[in-house]
Amino acid sequence: MSSSVAFAKAQAEDRAALVGYLPAGFPSYRGAIEAAKAMVEAGCDAVEIGLPYTDPMMDGPTIQDAVHRALTGGIRVADVLRTVEAVAATGVPVLVMTYWNPVDRYGVEAFARDLKSAGGVGLITPDLTPEEADPWLAASDAHDLDRVFLVALSSTDERIAKIVDVCRGFVYAASLMGVTGTRSAVDTGAPGLVERTRRILARRGPDAPTLPVGLGLGVSNGAQAAEVAGFADGVIVGSAFVRRLLDAPDEKAGIQAVREFAAELAEGVRRGA
Amino acid sequence: MTIDAARGAASDSVNLPDPDGRFGRFGGRFAPEALMAALDALTREFEAAKADPAFTRELEELLAGYAGRPSLLTEARRFAEHAGGARILLKREDLNHTGSHKINNVLGQALLTRRMGKRRLIAETGAGQHGVATATAAALLGLDCTVYMGEIDTERQALNVARMRMLGAEVVPVKTGSRTLKDACNEAFRDWVATVEDTHYCIGSVMGPHPFPMMVRDFQRIIGVEARRQVLELTGRLPDAVVACVGGGSNAIGVFHAFIPDEGVRLYGFEAGGDGVETGRHAATLVGGSLGVIHGMRTFLLQDEDGQTLETHSVSAGLDYPGVGPEHSWLHDTGRAVYRAITDAEAMEAFALLCRTEGIIPAIESAHALAGALKVGRELGEDAVIVVCLSGRGDKDMHTAAQWFGLITGEEGTR
What we know:
The complex is a heterodimer of chains A (273) and B (415). Chain A is an alpha/beta fold and 273 residues long.
């Protein structure tokens, strides 16, 4: 399976796909699995499971806080793969979002093999660009995994062309210049980036595989989801989910809040279409 | 390694990194896509500036008329009595304006910032030396400045926090992770991703994504260029060894680089051994680390089996870092330089010894190089000539030293 399945399903319903992120191991190993399943039940089309890392250079305070707690709680890479397996049982595509060092340390080929056997569909790699990705390109080919690289507002057309050339599954467009976290408004440059990426994708000709464009960073409510759904193929939401778990009085209430928020966003992507 | 291979590696080193920023299998650019355009632009601008006589002249004028270069090469005769009869020559980076080698790099990057039309500098700092140097250059060139510093370091280097604030910089204590240098780096990168349009991240060591390891080295290599000339003038020959402390490794690369083609000159880097490498409480990356990716570069680092960065320990805030510049990993791999660990206790002993034999108070970072020089001197024996990079002065370390040695009445020494 590929994450493109989720985008195709959404497209068939004439709407954008909803992709939800949560780190493994937070609020607990079990709690993360339950929260991710709740996301799916309430309407997420695909799930990103974050691999907690000590130095999350691209994350704002909310996700930093959550992954710090996950690590303090003793989460290991093997637990992340078990989390993927449990969430993949829901039937939606599950990707792992990870900084590069844990994969490098595990062994790129071994990680690809074990991710595949856990039922994961691929990786999103926020600090890996195509220039440094040779081992991952080979391993993801060997195990038929998605490789989702990011494009940014600052990316030149040449760079976007190079990036979409190696992406599989979808392209992750970072909607703003900055780290993860909720924002009160979607950056005005975001539609332009999606448009530019699509234009460059179109140049690849009719035989190139379809590559939807998902937009992430900063989306914090149903109205913003609807706005993004108006111009992107997918809406990616992370920090706002994590925030609900952080703010809840207990795990059960947190999972319920995640469920309700996913439903709000699912309604948003349908409204935006 | 055969002699030919070593010779090949040695001469290659001078021409590294390759255009992708790689020193052999080290270095490169593991950075978020949002920064790639800025890193490309910085690489182009740096190459253009190096080729521009006006830029070179302005930097040379600042180094001479503002920073106080060339720095002295001082023979430490009484200190050398403890080093097996070797001659010890101190490259006095402590005498530079702001009190360390950091100013060499910062003046270069600050001029580059202005050349790129950016108006704000950000920096990470451990001991505070790089932060002070950056705040200084920002004041001199009229740039805004924000310095990220781990909360633990703001406590043990409070004097430098006050210095930076006096110079007009905003100092942000970083409260995440281990609250030391690596977390300050993370926070500076987070700032930069959001502000890259008008802000330059002035990285303080030979680390980070390409072009930083190359650019910082090129700004610091003046240390070795001067030292090589000075030691020839003073002794009529090249030294037997060049010695420096290594955290990220900028003073070490600075003093090593001009000597790399001189095959008879041994190069020694001394890392922070903390309580001893065997205790796990240390920051000796090359001695006790493994290959991985951190802060945008492939290099040796201290990590667990899951690739999580380990907490480090050193009495010296400036060496308390779990990674090391990729060029050091390359020099370590090829064997051109040798890296060893110095414990906190050994460093503090050398710190006291230099104070009392030479009337020079070194930075605790530099004291690791001094402790190393004592060992190398005893190994190489009489008449060996050893150049030691005295990377900074120790005024900022008086609180730590007073606690260590129990110097302040009413305050118990920690040892």
